Amino acid sequence: MSKKMWGGRFTTETDALAAGFHSSISFDCRLARVDIMGSIAHARMLGKTGIISAEDSEKIISGLKGILADIDAGAVSFSEQDEDIHMNVERLLTERIGDAGKRLHTGRSRNDQVALDVRMFLLEACDSLTALCRELMGVLADIASDNLSTIMPAYTHLQKAQPTTLAHHLMAYAEMLRRDCVRFGNARAAANMMPLGSGALCATTYPLDRHMVAQELGFDDITPNSMDAVADRDCVLDFIYACAVCAMHLSRLSEEIVLWSTGEFGFISLSDAYSTGSSIMPQKKNPDMAALIRVKTGRVYGDLIALLTVMKGLPLAYNKDMQEDKEALFDAYDTLAACLPVMSGMLRTAEWRKDNMRAAAGRGFTTATDAADYLVRKGLPFRAAHEVVGRLVLYCEQHGKALTDLSLAELKQMSELFSEDVYDALSLEACVQRRAVPGGPSVQSVQNHIDLIRGFLAQK
């Protein structure tokens, strides 16, 4: 006869190799706290509804609290033979309080139990990552506030395109993070339904008060279909997807930091606290924190693809394949939770090379569009103005000049509409300030965006 808690119909023990392969305690042990919280709520409900005696209910609750305290104190060792966190806790409980502990599992299955644990983990994980995103948004807003007039080049195709400001550039990432917060909020809403009471797949014959358990655990509602409740991992996928998009945003910012740190750009100098050196080249100061954030994005992508692949061919309801959800979930969470505060610290302590940024903005004909707009204001159709300025740029390239180096006589060779006021119109500051539409780089436009982000951050 097997000694497994589910072993009544088995005559031999599980093969040792198979037991290790089957066990999930090595990673789902981190669900111990939420598992015990869920069991306490279940036991209290069982007692209140009279499914078990009030005395047994209190014994179970007291025993579970003692186990949780011992786990927190590091005084509990989990057994691979008990497979997962659910069976480990139940075994410990029964050893401590006797037969009353065997009543805890009344009206539930490990299928709905793990669904509950995962959803409780997700609620906390979404809140945690949202807080870290908001922290980084605050750092970006602070830097932007100090650099509303710091001119730098904006790029398309990694080619200088138009002048902008450091504030405008960084606030683009603040906006990305705001959307990340919304995505984590949506993932939290998807997880915020209590599945316990679904049983293995077809609920239970016991008169459970599912709403009582949901209320005690802080869920907004209960799942409406027992088969879906145990087979659903959409909320996990929603969460990992949100992690993947957020990681992608961090990777894009990291790539820019790596580029800006080079001598070729020279826009930023990272603090020594967020840089590394070379074992052979004494001069090196490497932006390795940014590089690591960039590469860890691939891990989170892998977590998402892994779980999508797990779920793609599974019939209803629960399948053992779904045990693979937790490692992907934990890895995505852990990876992003490590990256976000490093990015915040790296940016908070960075030195911005404003002179280099402005000098770079003055190269590469970044004011060419403004030269065309100047001619449009003088009455020339835009397409014709585009042609004129294109010929001016070609002339500058052939003669090694910038647009602002051209004499008025040279400009008039291309169009008689040019006059002395063109030089004021083509200053970097004027080009930025004229872009005063909402969302643009002018000081007031960016300040409005900063105010919008700070208002978002002020919301609870």
Plain-language structure description:
This protein folds into 3 domains: 100 residues, Fumarase C, Chain B, domain 1; 232 residues, Fumarase C, Chain A, domain 2; 99 residues, Ribonucleotide Reductase Protein R1, domain 1 (Orthogonal Bundle). It contains 19 helices and 6 strands. The strands form 3 sheets. The protein has a two-stranded antiparallel ribbon with strand order 1-2. Strands 3-4 form a two-stranded parallel ribbon. Strands 5-6 form a two-stranded antiparallel ribbon. The protein starts with 15 loop residues before the first helix and ends with a helix. β1 and β2 form a beta hairpin. With 460 residues, it is mainly α. The chain is elongated. α4 crosses α5, α6 packs antiparallel against α19 and α7 runs antiparallel to α10.
CATH class group of the largest domain: Mainly Alpha
Task: Please tell me how large the radius of gyration is.
Answer: 30 Å
Strand content: under 5%
Q: Roughly how many Å apart are the termini? A: 56 Å
Order of helices and strands: HHHHHHEEHEHEHHEHHEHHHHHHH
Task: Supply the number of structural domains.
Answer: 3
